[in-house]
Design a protein that fits this description.
Helix content is 0%, strand content 54%. With 115 residues, the protein is mainly beta.
């Protein structure tokens, strides 16, 4: 069982920055593909940024050039640095860990961008 705990969400003005953190319960990065997803009210959950199983990164077109996903294996932590935030980035952000049929989610952290 993998546990994921997100933090770092909050209220920020448009144009501002936030850094989200996701701490995993163990050393899983060597097996699991880690990523960040978000879900806005009335919308489906969507991929924001992720590490692929090969170690490369993938970003939603809407966040390219503004968000950066990174990880610290020693701390079992994945980060999402968000810059130039827009009102449309407002959502609950979820951390995800995938490995074959194993699929784990954190509880989510709210990000609200005021215009």
């Amino acid at each position: 069982q993998v546990q994921l705990v997100e933090s770092g969400g909050g209220l920020v003005q448009a144009g501002g920055s936030l850094r989200l953190s996701c701490v995993a319960s163990g050393s899983i990065f060597s097996r699991y593909a880690m990523g960040w997803y978000r879900q806005a009210p009335g919308k489906q959950r969507e991929l924001v940024a992720a590490f692929t199983s090969g170690g490369s990164t993938d970003y939603a077109d809407s966040v390219k050039g503004r968000f950066i996903i990174s990880r610290d294996s020693a701390k079992n932590t994945v980060y999402l640095q968000m810059s130039s935030l827009k009102s449309e980035d407002t959502a609950v952000y979820y951390c995800n860990a995938k490995w074959y049929l194993h699929d784990y989610w954190g509880q989510g952290t709210q990000v609200t961008v005021s215009s």
